[in-house]
Amino acid sequence: MPRDLSIKHILIIxxxxxxxxxxxxFDYSGTQASRSLREExxxxxxxxxxxxxxxxxxxxxxxxxxxxxxPESIIQILEEQQIDAVLPTMGGQTALNLAIEAGKxxxxxxxxxxxxxxxxxxxxxxxxxxxxxxxxxxxxxYVAPSRIANSFLEGKEAAQEIGFPLVIRPSYTLxxxxxxxxFSEEEFDDKLRHGLNLSPTHEVxxxxxxxxxxxxxxxxxxDDNDNVVxxxxxxxxxxxxxxxxxxxxxxxxxxxxxxxxxxxRNDAIKMMRxxxxxxxxxxxxFAINPEDEKLMAIEINPRVSRSSALASKATGYPIAKIAAKxxxxxxxxxxxxxxTKTTSAFFEPTLDYVIVKMPRWNFAKFAGADHSLGLQMKxxxxxxxxxxxxxxxxxxxxxxxxxxxxGLGADMKEWIQxxxxxxxxxxxxxxxxxxxxxxxxxxxxxxxxxxLTKIDPWYxxxxxxxxxxxxxxxxxxxxxxxxxxxxxxxxVNGYSDAQIAWLLRINEQEVTDQRKALDIRxxxxxxxxxxxxxxxxxxxxxxxxxxxxxxxxxxKKKIIVLGSGPNRIGQGIEFDYCCVHxxxxxxxxxxxxxxxxxxxxxxxxxxxxADKLYFEPVFWEHIEEIIELEKPEGVIVQLGGQTALxxxxxxxxxxxxxxxxxYPDMDLAEDRGAFSDLLKELNIxxxxxxxxxxxxxxxxxxxxxxxxxxxxxxxVLGGQRMRIVINDDELEEQVLSIFKxxxxxxxxxxxxxxxxxxxxxxAICDGEDxxxxxxxxxxxxxxxxxGDSCALLPPYSLSEEVIETMKKYTIKLAKAxxxxxxxxxxxxxxxxxxxxxxxxxxxxxxxxxxxxxxRVPYLKYATQVMIGAKKLKDFDIQKHEEGYAIKVxxxxxxxxxxxxxxxxxxxxxxxxxxxxxxxxxxxxxxxLNKKRSMFLSR
Amino acid sequence: MTKSDLKPAVLLLEDGTIYRGHSAGKxxxxxxxxxxxxxxxxxxxxxxxxxxxxxxxxxxNAHIGxxxxxxxxxxxxxxxxxxxxVKNFTNExxxxxxxxxxxxxxxxxDLVAICDIDTRSLVKYIRSKGAMNGIISSxxxxxxxxxxxxxxxxxxxxxxxxxxxxxxxxxxxxxxHSDHKVAVLDFGIKKNILECFSKRGCYLKVFPAKTxxxxxxxxxxxxxxxxxxxxxxxxxDYAIATTKEIxxxxxxxxxxxxxxQILALANDIPTYKMxxxxxxxxxxxxxxxxxxxxxxxxxxGFGVSPDAIKNKLDKVKITHRNLNDDTIEGISVIxxxxxxxxxxxxxxxxxxxxxxxxxxxxxxxxxxxxxx
Lengths: 938, 372
Prior knowledge:
- Chain A is α+β, with helices and mostly antiparallel strands.
- Chain A is built from 31 helices and 33 strands.
- By secondary structure, chain B is an alpha/beta fold.
- Chain B has helices at 43-47, 102-108, 119-129, 143-151, 162-165, 191-199, 213-218, 237-248, 258-266, 356-371; strands at 8-13, 18-25, 29-37, 55-59, 63-64, 83-85, 88-89, 112-115, 133-137, 171-173, 180-186, 202-208, 223-226, 253-256, 271-287, 293-304, 316-322, 328-333, 338-341.
């Protein structure tokens, strides 16, 4: 059936601020959906309160509403626009909940708006544990024995009936919030109470725990004609018991026979059909008992999800894009495969590579948090890696993590205490895969490892192969001794030059030189949905060490943009927004745009955003190889946050051109000592400070600058380990803690300006002129990390004089630092005196916010300035200044029940929302302002 | 055993292209027509599918061997491919229900294989140059010697191979008290086709490929089945003749893959050798009669001519088409109780979307019974 022509204008609901369990994958799906619908000539309106998204950009939708996700906002949009239908499946549970709420209030009916791509009954059925279980039993599926409880008493009865270990799962919560294992009666009462509290309907499911079964996920697409395809099957390396969002996952399934897989496929389709008749995406989760391959239905999500973003990137099949077309009536056989452009969209992608997804955790940010992994998702982001062997993909995933590892171990961070390792194998945390390798290295038998982890022996043996390779490697003394076939084999198994260097205790450069001398170079293969059966022209590549290189550089001039890697606290979706705009500006300026990134949730890794996408770790060795192949004019490091910026030094040393501000100038801004000298020279005030190499020095400095002082390691992200201390004892404790966790680092001690106001400026400089994009004033006093504070654009309480001083300092600094492109400067204002706290020579967290609020394509302008295509005077910048825009941080504390929720210099928020107000009498603002000093701790 | 300890092996194609890798399976030399299968599961089922007789199989999945092999998963009594070409030969396996590792299995079955090949580049090559003969060896590494050996391998076109894989003598399958009796012409049948019939209440008598119609009829079946199998269907005069007789007798008939091609040939619609065929478990097919789509398991290097069929639309109806390239995937004979599909509704490996065709055939046989 061709598309429904009665639909002319569609409203897409976004997912709001980033929280754990609902991240930028919904920016990707919403953006895809919007583009897909506009391709059909449909007008798209879009609502989302998250300003850091690409979906809320004027390039994505016809009408963007940066409004709170409430029924009132929906009414406002429906009053202003002639909406025919609403598509609520692209914005996660948040969008669905809003659509359901608006439905119950009769809003859709009143405005004659159809819900498309969704079956509300199906959603409610899937979310209601008891009904879901009953349905599964009716259609002949096996489910874990369970009972629903709506009260404490019912919960106790259920536990008695089912026995321990069991699982408590609250109904209608996100990312498994509040769910958990209960191993004994003693811990049951507390967990039951917690679960009942967290469920909006005060309902929990008490279920028998199936520990050690293997876990799988299938991504399905169905059209109006009930045609179904499976887009991707994902195998969890971590078995049942660890939330799939916290599991390392692999595609295609590595240990599944066709007989077992086809039963799973049949059951997935049966389950989807039993839910209702919706057209769109659906995710089904199964467990398999490895003993007899008995299959158990775990969960079904009849919407686009985090796993569909991963499945899209893993296979090249753009699920959200196709799901949007299905929602307006197309059937799969009417659509084309978006990668080959010639074959049918009704098909099942096949992979000739291996995908490993690895979650990114940020436990260090949540003091007091329980670091163990379980039913509740705790990771804040993820990376995906592609290789031609499992080991290659696994090690590339480790290299993508950006947690100072060079692969799966083979660095100085191995553990050697058997008991500690065994404990970590049994009680999984963020490092289990590393500990698994440590265990093998120490000779702990495979059987024991399996008993403790229930990780399929196939994976244990693959990692054992790595340990064997390392044993063989350490027999050599220098890189020149390694025979070519063995060297190649190490690379095929994903080893970075840095790992090989460490194992041989030699310099990384020696390894790289020898590797290049042997001509062991990366080749690039295409992700094409069809294992090369059909010709594909989509420029989506990954590296491996194989014979044929498919990525043939064009003769156009090229510029590479470095992405920001996995989302984490302090570096999230806002940098992806910057990268996407950068790519568009590069294209517009007549260059070929090349993207390097490894975060599957992002828009920047969509295969048609850049002219060429390398889905690779943002890791030196991988980048260098791409640069040597592509020979670009240069790279852009200002857009990908600290991840990209950190690599600037290496580019500089290797003679690779950095577009925009030069490395020595960026380093000047980052180097506290040199930067303070510069401020002094420019006659700009700054808090007294000092840098210490040990605790004694720290004490001397602290007493010189006087308490309270701000203590932090140098070169960190999001204020990691930054604290305010008020006396010698606290200082000593804090300094020792930093040296323990981050050796080889300096400790910076700054005078803390108590009760000062904070503000920041984002600006663009082209070497001659400086344009102030926006000034944001924090509502909370200094001491709370800028990412965690509420802020107003423009300032609301600072005097004209102060504002002028800030502007003056910005211009001075931008020129002195020879900024070409973006700069962000943080100020503290005390008794009308303006201090500069820090300067970031790159796109900041607030850059997208200002661009959205003022409706100016600042990232595009900044990029054109960086690459020298335009000067500031070439732009006619018209800011849309009306009232104030408030930036409101959003936290995910709900995931960490015992965590310290107070705020301080270390950033803890996971996302942010934008809210426009007309004036300062706005009740929302008044409430925030009233509470401004409440949260500051240390 | 680490990979660098493996013996070197070489793959030489008819046009002189050389791929070097390492030996897997049995040490030796083997020849055949090169083809690739894009399935991510079901390698053992593919190895043992008699339709692959005489072929060197390239698997595109990155790892092969991960879940070992299981005797019950075989589609016939032995490996039928002539040789195997893989990227990562993964002998370490994990499956509680498995019987053997892939290396043990290949050694027992005397199959020569080559690994550490850039299979993706090879697939791209076959995709552009078309199917051709090749030779794999882990004992002869001299290219000239291999070239000489390769020259002796006949082209697949015009090759009759069914008689090499068919049963020697008739045998029975299933429950004798079943509702229906199906006479099966074995051109190289997969075990799971028999299972699919028998599970649906059919008792089967499987006949050698060259069995004359009179013998089939003597058993008094309710319907006839034309099986899958290897080789060029146009070379199978005996099967085409038998099928014509079945049609003349107005007996219900169902054909799969080679059987489909035979049914077309029996209606004077020619077949042709495809450029590089369809082999995989993700091929999209649309049932034109119902409008529904199905994901199918496919394995064929010959097809029913889409041009010639245009002149025969008074005799046959096109029931199924491939959504990728519009090739003919299914036909039914007008005025007869005969239909066939190019793909494999029995799957193994592959999706079970098309199993309804077995039910359709049983309904067809039932309707004949009711009418008589």
